[in-house]
Specification:
heterodimer, A: about 110 residues, about 50% strand, globular, B: mainly beta, 7-stranded mixed beta sheet, 4-stranded antiparallel beta sheet, 11 strands, about 55% strand
């Protein structure tokens, strides 16, 4: 099983600032990596797939990068609606596995 | 509008059984793999099971206890859960996909395993 490790656990950012979230895989997942956003009481929403491709309707301030074992999600200028938990997920092999999530909170 | 709507959650005793369901609409259900993903209170997301055209996959922690199935004519996805344990307590989400990503999610149904 591939273990996905996200850092930091919590990120405190002021609105308008840049946020950088990390996700590390215990072995290579190539570019088979997705990012999800989840707000309290809501279902997750797909943001990024293929490590760097934005899903339909996702604003350009969200960008993903990386391959192999190291990945980054960047939110270029945080808006109020972006404060949420972000999770990465690998789909290179079974079982599909998620990171434990990074909470982006208002500083 | 593409939509997934779960139902069937509730309170069940340890060792008991429960079936959760997911009604899909707005897309050609039979063309997609479908999955169950769960989230224990205050915890991260955890993949449970996926059913594709002819393939079924389970997480190790549910093998032999849970059974995923689908009815393409009714656009329905099911998860039969037997021998439930306290650690199975979670919100169970129905999600489209898992051949790669989960691109559409339902709102979830809560399953509580407690005496």
């Amino acid at each position: 099983e591939i273990v996905m490790t996200q850092s930091p656990a919590t990120l405190s950012v002021s609105p308008g600032e840049r946020a950088t979230l990390s996700c590390r895989a215990s072995q290579s997942v190539s570019s088979n990596l997705a990012w999800y956003q989840q707000k309290p009481g809501q279902a997750p929403r797909l943001l990024i797939y293929g490590a760097s491709t934005r899903a339909t309707g996702i604003p350009a301030r969200f960008s993903g990068s990386g391959s192999g074992t190291e990945f980054t999600l960047t939110i270029s200028s945080l808006q109020s609606e972006d404060f949420a938990v972000y999770s990465c997920q690998q789909y290179n092999i079974w079982p599909r596995t998620f990171g434990q999530g990074t909470k982006v909170e208002i500083k | 509008e593409v939509q997934l709507l779960e139902s069937g959650g509730g309170l069940v005793q340890p060792g008991g059984s429960l079936r959760v369901s997911c009604a899909a609409s707005g897309f050609t259900f039979s063309s997609y793999a479908m999955s169950w993903v769960r989230q224990a209170p205050g915890k991260g997301l955890e993949w449970v099971s996926t059913i594709g055209g002819s393939s079924i996959y389970y997480a190790d922690f549910v093998k032999g206890r849970f059974t995923i199935s689908r009815n393409n004519f009714k656009s329905m996805l099911y998860l039969q859960m037997n021998s439930l344990r306290a650690e199975d307590t979670a919100v169970y989400y129905c999600a489209r996909g898992a051949g790669d990503t989960f691109d559409i999610w339902g709102q979830g149904t809560m399953v509580i395993v407690s005496s």
